[in-house]
Amino acid sequence: MNLLSVSHLCVNFHIKKQELVALIDISFTLNRGERIAIVGESGAGKSILGFSIVNLIGKPGYIKSGSIKLENKELSTMNLRQLQEVRGKRIAMIFQDPMMTLNPVITIGDQLVETIRSHTNISYKDARSIAIEKLHHVQIASPEKRFDQYPHELSGGMRQRVIIASVLLLNPDIIIADEPTTALDVTIQAEILQLLLAICRDNGVALILISHDLGVVSKVAERTLVMYAGHIVEEGPTLEIINDPQHPYTQGLLNALPQMTLPGQRLNQIQGSMPSLAERPSGCAFHPRCPYATQKCRQEQPRFIYSGVSSVACFLVEDMLNECAEHDQEAM
Length: 332
Description:
By secondary structure, this protein is of the alpha/beta class. The protein has helices at residues 46-53, 80-86, 98-101, 108-119, 124-137, 143-147, 156-168, 186-203, 214-217, 238-243, 248-255, 295-299, 315-331, and strands at residues 4-15, 18-30, 35-39, 61-70, 73-74, 91-94, 174-178, 206-211, 223-228, 231-237, 305-307, 310-312.
């Protein structure tokens, strides 16, 4: 049985009598201990998908249809009390900015202890011991000292380690990490990613890493989902997607990485920008930015097809596979 199953998920926003579609027919699974990544530019729907999994989509957004199951439990229809048994205990979330997560006027220790005691009946003393143990686990020096400090007294990397410690307090099955290294410098980014990877490996925790950077993803995730304008456009093993990207959008993301250009050259970029929810194009949503777009791309939505070990929604790839199949048949 899959630990997490998302099937045909659709999320809408009802704004000024308009129905704006944010996620369209999203389906994927996550096994216990597996590490997957959700990749795409800002506005692709990555964070909305992460919030949807733990049913944190607030009005005017709502889950229109589809299923989100944690083992055999449907999350999308749970009430608040039922969700409180899942959030933190079964599925924990790391947000982009730790200063938005940590309360600036409460000490680190009191925030960690409050998290533990809100889900258990243990004493303050025992909760304090667990909190200090988790701070030590995420390689925070002098955890007893940090326990009594306020968030502003810690560096950005240290605050992110505190957030990781907080999600470990209740031993969750799944961690959703939404751009966990965005505000950190490159050296600290690498440390945080290695820490997350080690924690997941050592504890058998499944990870959903949300990122715009395929370079970051390549170091952590076993499998990658590429999102564009609310759709998954490509899915497969991370190394396969990086070494042999099928969808033109995935190719564009890879070519835009700084290491893909020589020193002194302009960085590559995908022409145009992500469409807004109110201006979603017809057919394949990527066609206005795609150098290979045809009339069919402008009119029809491509279906998922298998290309090697990956799945991709692209008419170009579909046509190439059909041509190869016809050639092979003629050769026989």
